[in-house]
Amino acid sequence: MKYTWISCIVFILFACQTKTNQNRNYNNLKFETLPVVVKANFSNQQSSAHVLMNKDYYVWGNSVIKWNNKYHAYYSRWHEKYKHKGWLTYCEIVHAVSDNPEGPFKIENVVLESEKKEGWDTNNAHNPYVIIAEGKIKMYYIANDLGAHKPNHKLNSPTNDSLWFENNRKLVRNSQRIGIAVANNPNGPFVRSKSPVVEPDNILFKNIAVNPAVVYHNNKYTMIMKGDDVDKEQWFRIQLVGESTLAGGPFKFEKEPVYNKAQTEDACMWFDQELKRYFMVCHVMGKRDLALFYSYNGKDWEPYWKDEDTKMLHFIGKDNIVFHCIIFPAMLKAEGSYILPENVPANEFLNLEGQKLSTSKNWAVWLPEYLKEFPNQQDVLRYALNANAPETKDNDFTWKDFQARNNNELVAIFGNFINRVVVLTNKYFGGVVPTPNTFSDVDKATLNAVKAYPAVIASAIERYRFREGGQELMNLARLGNKYLADEEPWKVIKTDADRVNTIMNVALQIASALATLSEPFLPFTSNRLKQMLNYDDNSWQDISSKSVLLPATHQINKATLLFSKIEDKTIQEQLNKLEASKKANEAASKATEPQKDTISFEDFTKLDIRVGTILEAEKMPKAKKLLVLKVDTGVDTRTIVSGIAESFKAEDIIGKRVTVLVNLAPRKLRGVESEGMILMTEDEHGKLVFVNPDQDGVPNGLTVS
User: Fold this and answer.
1) Are residues 15 and 110 in the same domain?
2) Which of 215, 234, 585, 695 has the fewest CB atoms found within 10 Å of its own CB?
3) Residue 635 sits in which domain range?
4) How sure is the predictor about 218, in pLDDT bands with cuts at 50, 70 and 90?
């Protein structure tokens, strides 16, 4: 079943429902794993006749096209004297022809040599993937330039460089790039690209760009290639999807890989005209498995809005209930071909620090700024928003609550449990999951309790009570913490090592359950935890059904912190930003006072305004706003009481030039007689500013006219 969600903040929390959580969006090209993985044991496969064979050569990476009723094969080969590793440096691409797709293929010519004089691909030509597009033959291939790393390297002298090669095998492998060569006919000549079509950018993928598979459809080139995951410290090969309107790129790749549960390579891709779907087959590295993926509906939007097997959900705010529950469904019903939303979960309002969110007034938490200021803490914001979601009443997001959610729950409960489990496992057992001995009643009760959580969390999600589901996940972490605190393996190890085997085995089962069940709420954390446990074979259903989630003798990795404490200083910086926004908004919204009643010139001449200098200043006792000033007016030195104490410190204004209304009738303020008025205005932040001459050389006593 397809799912369409019309959503607001829920997209921050969940990409999709459980049923489709492996689907990814690549410019609307989505792939999903077929229910059954296609498997074949190739090691025992025998053929009565070779489709293609070269005596004295290794043959690898065949790609076939049909041109003028003949089948043209392009494949990689290197001489057997270079042995298996020769594919990295001594490989060339050869063209062969047959009347039948089964062969045999007759060798015609070498189309890309293994060595050139110059260019990014001076060494090697490997893994061809050939398509016919725009009336030409376009060959995508991989190559590198060893000369950039070892200028004196000679391809025709493999023994001379054997030691260098063995010491730099990783460098050679990771220097491979994807290029394109174009020809007007199958025999060539093929003109190579002057620069690579695809290179790692260390944003989407790092080090390596190899093994392209390309489809030309609807005037666009769609490529699947093998890169390595930037989110993993060690190399981890993944398939990435990119598109371009030009054969030579640039290809715009989507960040999310097709599939990241296991390493994959050597993809093959095609578009089925009848089914209107893309298909991809790739090898699961380390296994004898081929995984088949297909795109659902390609770029067709209509099934998401019209098919009966689509479930449409509208996630909205309460102010849009009338439109989404009455007006919009009525419009869809009247048109006749659209499905109606199955459910319209409506949330209340979420405020920010007691005020309504407003992007125009900069009263908001901006995601790009958050990701920069809180690196690798995406899940913290996701968790805080989910924990405080306004599902049944208006709620308030505060930075203090955000800090508390992180420090008191994610760090102190979830992170603490995982860290203790992994650290102790590495300390006591060298990172190997211990084999349990006899389970106590507490052990059995704890393991049975773990099995209940998938159903409880799933129920909350299915009822759109995501906050409840997140808290149940945290309860599972609390269960783990309590179990460790009660069993105290750090004490028991001194007296009963066999018992510790069982305790740590149970704790690791809880950790493995957390790795899977946290994915809807904490996806980045889930991935990091799976890497730490070095295990990703459990499904949601496995948590309830399997007796062992993390097998004994399995090797886990070293501990890394899943969460880090957020300090008061960091939170204060965010509060200061909001306070600055508040003051700016107040200044912007402050209306200019209207003009007062018109006066005559004679009325104005009654005012005696003089330039003066503040000689002394002190705070009025028991008065928050008042300063007592001694001012030289040029006429005399007099006392003036002024309500400026909230904007200025007394010691900071001594010597300040001011403008004084000197003929104002005296008035007593808190027992002090004030003989005049200091003229002031306000800046954009509401702070008082002196009205004074902007040039030196203006003596005290001069009148303002």
Assistant:
1) no
2) 695
3) 601-690
4) confident
